[in-house]
Amino acid sequence: MEQSYLIDLKQVVKRFPMGKGSFTALKGLDLQFEAGEFAGLIGPSGSGKTTLLNIIGTLDLPSEGGGTVLGHPIEHLKASEAALLRKERIGFIFQSYNLLQVHTVFENVEFPLLLLGMPSEERRKKVMEALDWVGLADRHRSRPSQLSGGECQRVAIARAMVKQPSLVLADEPTANLDAANSHHVLKTMQQLNEAFQTTFLFATHDEKVISYLKRKIYLMDGQLVKDERV
Prior knowledge:
Helix content is 34%, strand content 29%. It is of the alpha/beta class. The chain has a single domain (37-59, 79-229), classed as Rossmann fold, CATH 3.40.50. Strands 6-7-8-3-9-10 form a six-stranded mixed beta sheet, sandwiched between helices. It has a four-stranded antiparallel beta sheet with strand order 2-1-4-5, with helices on one face. α3 packs parallel to α5, α4 (120-133) crosses α5 and α5 packs parallel to α6 (179-196). It is globular and about 50 Å long. The relative contact order is 0.19.
């Protein structure tokens, strides 16, 4: 019986127009991920890791090749289907937090549940639960401007986790944090991975992040150069 993967990519190529020609960011990648992995795409700027993360997150389409993400064939996904998949089953964590500054911590974390049309009482329970996971339940009335960088990133983790997605994608999540905050944030994500078996996939070149990974996938010039499990 053939194994069913959470993510199964086959010969993925991604080209971007450049001048009169094109730049090939990904050069025929084959990659598979099982449910519950804590893995990272590692490489310098320009290695293709963010491009690959965007394709896995259905934010972009491959130029050639394809495969499946959460059971959906990515090369054939319509924009509306991709948006629904992201809304229901994928969480995102960015290096710049992307919090809504005019809203409270509670409202920022609540936002994905509003998109799902969840009833008010159920939303409140899930938001406070998610803030409790990241140790910020007591700051639910604060605004992002009143928080430290590490606290803002923990709010972003709560927002990504509040709907208990199958997959969380994190693009350089510690880039704006000092060492102490980085370790706090990474331990939080590690605990959530173990508690809920949520798959975490990072794009990073930060040694602090790399030290926490259970699987390290090294990219260089759009190609896979090493795939190691810890």
